[in-house]
Structure formats: structure tokens, C-alpha cells
Write a structure and sequence with these properties.
Blueprint lengths: L3 H7 L14 E4 L14 E7 L2 E7 L23 E6 L3 H12 L3 E8 L2 H10 L4 E5 L1 E2 L2 E2 L1 H10 L4 E6 L4 H9 L4 E4 L5 H58 L8 H31 L5 E6 L1 H11 L1 H6 L3 E6 L6 E3 L1 H18 L5 E8 L6 E8 L6 H4 L23 H10 L5 E6 L3 E9 L8 E3 L1
Parallel strand pairs: 4-5, 4-6, 6-9, 9-10, 12-14
Antiparallel strand pairs: 1-5, 2-3, 7-8, 11-13, 11-18, 14-15, 15-17, 16-17
């Protein structure tokens, strides 16, 4: 049987320094109490030993008794109240937690609710610092309670509370955004102070990291945008004067001069495409990419786009052809964006197809989903390796470099294609038999008379 001294230490016994509090409030010091220095603070308890009432100074964190006459460090002068929202449907568990917080060396303002709906309503009208959330509520069982709290208060620290056999559920709640968890039946002054300190500190650190990340992204995007715009003007001048030379307006060029001029034009075009891609990605990430969907004829767009690549294909000895279904319905898409996607896919196909190969552009109604058209670009080039194919639409993903492929880009083209297609309600995917070629397909919605012109951002 435990002695009276042990029983007195293990229980929450009266603390002379506690002030009388209103409903849901108890006393605690500022967050410094929850730092390692808090281990030096002491509480004075009244305990019974052999029927005699004694005063005992106890370290509230470690639970160990201090020798009589030991020096007591001063309490922090900068006190603040931590606002706690306690979501617990069991009155006895809620009372135990409130008493545990009341016996801790700190100041808490505890608001107790028993339903998820009541907690959401409270959060809509009041600020809190930390949420203690039971995972077994009448109106939200398991992870639904934690998800509801994280959705209602994404910027607040969240601690979930569970029974001994629910540790797997608690671990999943941590993966979904909770900062810590407590096991009912094992809640002590130390564990709840440690958990609250950790949860608040981690949430603040996460908020700071997210703020820094957003600031860095904004600065990066501004830098890319400014540099890209500054590069455009001199590059445009280079391209224009090279074109004047290539057209022999100042005078005739010999064969070597013509080759040099063609190289200038080719590389200036590649650099211009890279700058355009950088600006496009910046617009995508800033949420400033505008899609203007309207009724458009896919046949005309396909023919015009293919015609613009005819000369490049002939120079490489590549056969470029089209195959369109008869009576294709109009599409509901942005013609400029669809052409941009087709141009990117055609450029890659021509680039990676060797002399004597074939590039085919097709347009047809999707047999599996008649509300969509399928546009595809296939080639007989080198194909794409399986491990590369899985991430080919990711940003900065590069296709393997082959001797006949020429210069590689920034790895942004297919990422931009994916964004342009998905923002019009379509999908894009790729198939490849490595060494034999690749096929890229994307879908666009069919136009119906009740569709309206919209701008999707």
C-alpha cells in the first residue's frame, strides 16, 4: 500500500498560490515556464505523513521533492494567458484535465465544449492558442474530429487525445496536421505541459517556415519575371537583325555566313522559348494564368499548327502527317492555349525523331468519354525510359539526352502543358515503347450550346 506521502504527491492537492478562478480558467506563467528552465520552478503542496500535515516543495515537471530550505527561483515577470479549447464529451475526463492544468505552474484560460459543432462555432468567434481534441466525440469519431479542427483552425496548435488502443489513429492524426497527442489515463502535469509547449512551439515554427517559404517564392518569381523581361529586349534585337541578314536585305551571303546566321536564329529562338516558359511558370505559380474557353474548331487549329512545323520536319527528313476523324464536334477550350500545348508536343516530337522517322497528329472523339476530344502527337523517335516517363510532367523533368536530340530545355514545357490542359478540364498523359517512340495524348471538353464563355484562373 502506498504511503500517505506518495499519495499526496501523486494527486493534485491544494496549492496555496493558486488564485480563485472563474469557469474554465486556471493560473500559469508565461511560455518560459514550458522551457527547460521550468524544471527549476517549484510548487508548495500540503501532504499528510503519519497523520501530520506537512508542507512539501515539489518540482512540478519532474515530480520530485526538493530539500527543505532549497532556494526557489523567481517566477517570470512577463506573464501571459494561454487560451485552451478543450473538446471532450466526457465530463470526468474534462474535469481531470482542467484540474491538471490548474495545478500546473502556469495561467490557462480553458473553454470546454462537448461537440465538434460547438468547437467550430467557438473558433469562428474567438481566438485560441491550442486545441485539446478528443478523438471519440458523439458527432465526430476518430480522425473526423481532428480533420474538423484542422479545417476550422489551421493556424492553431492541435493536440489529440486518445485511449491506449488508439495510438495508430493518433499517429495518423499527426500525419494529417496535429502537433502532438496524449493518451488518456496517462495525463500528468508534466506530460500536458510538455505537450502544450511542444505543440505551440511547433505550430509557430511551421507558420514561420510557411511565411518564409512564401516570401522566398515571391522574391524568386519577381526576380525571374524581371530578368526575363530584361532579356527579352536585347534578344528580340538579336533575332530581328539575324533575320535581316538571313533574308539578305543588306546583301548576299556566302554559304558559311548563311550557316552562321541560321545558328544565331536557332539559338535565339530556343532562348526566347525558355524565357517564355519561365514567365509562364511564374504566372502559373502566382495564380495569374488566364484561360479563356470558347467554342473552337479543332480541325483548323490542328492544320494550322502542323503547317508551322512542316519546314522544320522537312529539314530533318521527317514525315509529318495528320489524321482527323470525320465530323469532329467543336471543342470548348482556349484556342491559344490548345495551340501552345500542341506546339510544345510537336516541337519535342520533331526534336527527338531521327531522319526518316514519322510524326503523326491525330484528333478524335474520346470513345470512353464522348464529352471530350482526344488530341495526340506520336513519333517514331527514341522514346522515353520508364523511370523518366513516370515524372515527365513534373517541373524541371528532363527527357534523356541523345546525340540527335540537340539542346535540352529547362524541363518546363510538359509541366506547362499539364497545367494548361488541367485548367481547361482535361487530362494529359504519355505512353512510350523505349527505343521505338512515344505518344502524348490530352483531352479537351466538347462544346455544347449551353456552355458560356468564362475565364478560368
Amino acid at each position: 500500500m502506498r504511503s500517505g506521502l506518495s499519495q499526496g504527491i501523486s494527486r493534485s492537492i491544494q496549492n496555496p498560490e493558486r488564485k480563485k478562478r472563474g469557469s474554465g480558467e486556471s493560473a500559469w506563467t508565461d511560455p518560459e515556464v514550458l522551457s527547460p528552465a521550468a524544471d527549476k520552478l517549484v510548487n508548495t503542496h500540503q501532504v499528510s505523513e503519519g497523520g501530520k500535515l506537512m508542507r512539501l516543495e515539489v518540482n512540478p515537471i519532474s515530480g520530485t521533492a526538493l530539500p527543505p530550505g532549497a532556494p526557489r527561483p523567481p517566477r517570470s515577470m512577463n506573464e501571459e494567458t494561454v487560451r485552451v479549447l478543450l473538446l471532450e464529451d466526457s465530463p470526468s475526463d474534462a474535469l481531470l484535465i482542467r484540474e491538471t492544468l490548474g495545478d500546473s505552474p502556469g495561467r490557462f484560460a480553458v473553454t470546454h465544449v462537448e461537440r465538434l459543432a460547438a468547437a467550430v462555432e467557438h473558433l469562428s468567434r474567438h481566438e485560441v492558442d491550442v486545441i485539446l481534441c478528443d478523438l471519440g466525440l458523439p458527432d465526430a469519431a476518430g480522425l473526423e474530429a481532428a480533420q474538423g479542427m484542422r479545417s476550422a483552425a489551421p493556424a492553431q496548435a492541435l493536440i489529440v487525445m486518445t485511449r491506449n488502443n488508439d495510438e495508430e489513429t493518433a499517429a495518423e492524426a499527426l500525419r494529417q496536421g496535429a502537433q502532438d497527442y496524449l493518451i488518456k489515463g496517462n495525463i500528468s502535469t508534466y506530460s500536458i505541459l510538455r505537450s502544450i509547449r511542444f505543440a505551440i512551439s511547433r505550430q509557430r515554427a511551421q507558420s514561420d517556415i510557411e511565411l518564409i517559404r512564401r516570401r522566398q517564392l515571391r522574391l524568386r518569381d519577381e526576380f525571374i519575371s524581371n530578368v526575363s523581361h530584361e532579356l527579352r529586349s536585347p534578344l528580340s534585337a538579336i533575332h530581328q537583325f539575324a533575320r535581316i541578314l538571313a533574308d539578305e536585305i543588306p546583301g548576299a551571303l556566302n554559304e558559311e555566313q548563311s550557316q552562321y546566321t541560321a545558328i544565331i536564329l536557332k539559338n535565339a529562338g530556343q532562348l526566347a522559348a525558355m524565357i517564355d516558359n519561365l514567365l509562364e511558370v511564374t504566372r502559373i505559380q502566382a495564380g495569374k494564368l488566364t484561360i479563356r474557353q470558347q467554342c473552337m474548331l479543332p480541325e483548323k487549329l490542328v492544320f494550322d499548327t502542323v503547317r508551322s512545323f512542316q519546314s522544320a520536319a522537312e529539314l530533318k527528313g521527317i514525315r509529318l502527317c495528320t489524321e482527323l476523324d470525320v465530323n469532329l464536334p467543336p471543342a470548348y477550350a482556349d484556342p491559344l492555349r490548345v495551340r501552345q500545348v500542341l506546339e510544345n508536343l510537336l516541337s519535342n516530337a520533331v526534336q527527338f525523331t531521327p531522319e526518316g522517322g514519322t510524326v503523326l497528329v491525330r484528333a478524335r472523339l474520346n470513345p470512353a468519354a464522348p464529352a471530350f476530344l482526344i488530341l495526340e502527337v506520336s513519333d517514331t523517335g527514341c522514346g522515353i525510359e520508364p523511370e523518366v516517363l513516370q515524372r515527365v510532367f513534373e517541373r524541371l523533368a528532363h527527357a534523356p539526352k541523345h546525340d540527335s536530340a540537340g539542346r535540352r530545355g529547362l524541363g518546363l514545357g510538359l509541366y506547362i502543358c499539364r497545367e494548361l490542359v488541367s485548367r481547361q478540364g482535361g487530362n494529359i498523359w504519355a505512353e512510350s515503347d523505349f527505343g521505338k517512340g512515344a505518344t502524348f495524348r490530352f483531352t479537351v471538353p466538347v462544346y455544347f450550346p449551353d456552355d458560356r464563355h468564362i475565364s478560368v484562373i
